[in-house]
Amino acid sequence: MKRTLFALAAIALATSAVAQGKPFGIASASPNGTNWPMTEDIRAVCSAPGAEITNVVTNGTLDNIVMVHGDPRAQFGIAQLDGLKYQQGVDKRMMEKIQVVFPFFSTEVHVIVAADSPITDFSQLAGKRVIEGPEGSGTWVSVQVIKSLTQSKWNGFYATQADGMKALLAGQADAMFIVAGSPVGIIKDTAGARVISLKHPELDKFELYTRAMIPAGTYAGTKQTVNTYKVDNALITYAFKAERQAEISNLVGCVTRNLEKLQAGGMNPLTQKPFHPKWRDVDPIDINRIAWPVHPAAKAVINREAKKK
């Protein structure tokens, strides 16, 4: 009986997981954000013996792009679309080798101040001390874009989410940016902080940003609905021509087939936490509207799986 149960469990695992291929890594970001726990969710449903997935902690988008381009630890990475455009302006030849394999969730721009701060919206940040996130992170990239588009001038400096939040609450900074999928754990878990409104006509015109709202009650200090913007994230890889085709097809197929399970919010056996709520925003068919080259193997799998439904 035990052998039978074991065999059935093995079959179920092989059905849901990446059944073939080599071990590979996904460059995510800090454990405090959204990318890391969602990568853990992917590991939970798609890792298999011989095709184990490693969750590689990084500083975020630019780190992930660089790793995917040439670091053997990560064949995949999560990147914001504004980060892809930003890096394209820095190194066009490098970005010709980066392709999207799966459309992910959107990340919201959070502008955070202390609960007792007199600052109520983005327009009041001029001349203030503002934490822009770790240099090279998705947050940092978005802040550079926002500053450039709005011609805002503040005294910016870099810090991780944890260090930045400490500085904010200690009065060493006036505001802090975090660009991550709402709800963001570190904001939700921190008393004494609140999210303020971000709205600007130049941001309305930018093709990669869409208006969004953070509902009242999302965070303890957020008593009213807050205006902001969101930017799409995607899973990326190197533009492999012959290598890693099985890993790309199997990973994309596995996530697509298990999306309903991830969206249902069940328990991740690796983290002992529910699958991240941002999975509910993921739609594989969005691969057809991504404003970036898509790997052919990934697109073929998504379109094939879509026809089965």
Short description:
The protein is α/β, with parallel strands linked by helices and 309 residues long.
Descriptive account of the structure:
Strands 1, 2, 3, 4, 5, 6, 7, 8, 9 and 10 form a ten-stranded mixed beta sheet that branches. With 309 residues, the protein is of the alpha/beta class. It has twelve helices and twelve strands. It has two domains: 2-105 and 233-307, Periplasmic binding protein-like II (D-Maltodextrin-Binding Protein, domain 2, 3-Layer(aba) Sandwich), CATH 3.40.190.10; 107-231, Periplasmic binding protein-like II (D-Maltodextrin-Binding Protein, domain 2, 3-Layer(aba) Sandwich). Strand 11 (267-268) and strand 12 form a beta hairpin. The chain is globular, with a radius of gyration of 20 Å.
Please render the helix and strand layout as text.
Layout: H1 2-16, E1 24-27, H2 35-46, E2 53-56, H3 61-70, E3 76-80, H4 81-90, H5 92-95, E4 98-114, E5 129-131, H6 138-150, E6 155-157, H7 161-169, E7 175-180, H8 185-188, E8 193-196, H9 201-205, E9 210-214, E10 226-238, H10 245-257, H11 259-263, E11 267-268, E12 273-274, H12 296-307
Parallel strand pairs: 1-2, 1-3, 5-6, 5-7
Antiparallel strand pairs: 3-10, 4-7, 4-8, 4-10, 9-10, 11-12
